Amino acid sequence: ACRRCRPDLTPGSPEWDINADVSGRAMRMIADGVVEREGVDGLASRTGYSTRHLNRVLTQQLGAGPLSLARAQRAHTARTLIETTEMALTDVAFAAGFSSVRQFNATVQEVYAATPTALRASRPASRSQQARADGVVTISLAVRTPFESRSLLSFLAQRLIGGVEEFEADTYSRTLRLPRGHGQVSLTPTQTPVGQVQCVLRLTDLRDLTSAVERCRRMLDLDADPVAIDEHLASDAMLRPLVQARPGLRVPGHVDGFEVAVRAIIGQQISVAGARTVATTLVAEHGDTIANPGSPGPTRLFPTAEVLAGVDPETLPMPRSRGRALVEMASAVADGQILLDRSADRADVRAGLMALPGIGPWTADYIALRALGDPDVFLATDLGVRQGMATLGCMGNDRHQAARAELWRPWRSYALMHIWRSLSKEEQ
User: What are the helix and strand counts (H, E) for the chain?
Assistant: First the structure.
């Protein structure tokens, strides 16, 4: 990789996300560490293709097979850790997903034409370093600019679940449930010309680092292409003032698709504040507590699908029909009938959700927006969208407004966020 232009620091291509094809789904799983945990066979099984066919598709579209792509992902993670942390190089090797120090050394040498020791010695002097404590890693996440972090953090802050999330002084913190354990993360956007987010992770197993970083990136929508998105949306005179007011606006994602689905069901026909109260009660009654986290911050883990699938709907702090819908959805996720992450086929997920009682188009599409990372969602029946569109001069019924939104494809999710944000300080 070129050490001058540093292409490895550029986040993933948004074209994969637009197409939502097998290569895009595979790349999202590779970034989440699926190859390291389950191998290429596991990756292929998740996409619904044979190993041979998946290798052929990835090689044809991306120029490399899954093993090579996973190797490149490990090399990129390793370089980030080498240059932005004080972790021992042996710890870097295993945290990045390598099976041995020898493999780590050989891969870094081949990809970057330098040894890990040389990379650490040549890192920029201005880059601040922080001494490492056990299980604590501080890294800088690259961001495509412009990055309108204020609106993003405001959205998250208004929906905080007590015990799971906290927000203070421009820093968002939460607990994480990860493949090999759990953790805590604190995320602070930095006010610098080169977009970065300071990420402090406390992990029970450093092998979860790749997954944790990927989940933080998708929650903050760091891999979006804001220049392309803003240019497209600003071509519509109706949206242009909104885009100019908030360049680089992001769509808040999430670290846990199941949590988004639960939030969406809880939030049906009630206020944001009301949904937040119900979710906090749900966590207090059914969420696990992190034992001795060793640092201040959130200490509750959001309940798993398996736990909520076994709850009596009558005992949930919500209307009975909504409680039944939540338990039915949890059961479908726990049984593997519905997969709520960005590796899933969006059409299949939507169909599966819509087949469940109590889940309609708004709920299914909201889940696609935040859990699946669909960049082209438009919630035509949302009250806030109706009001926002009318304020912008687009009168008429839902069908008329949805027809106008066709101009914003393939970035309707970002247009939706602009409309919500335009309503008032209290976002919908």
Answer: 21, 7
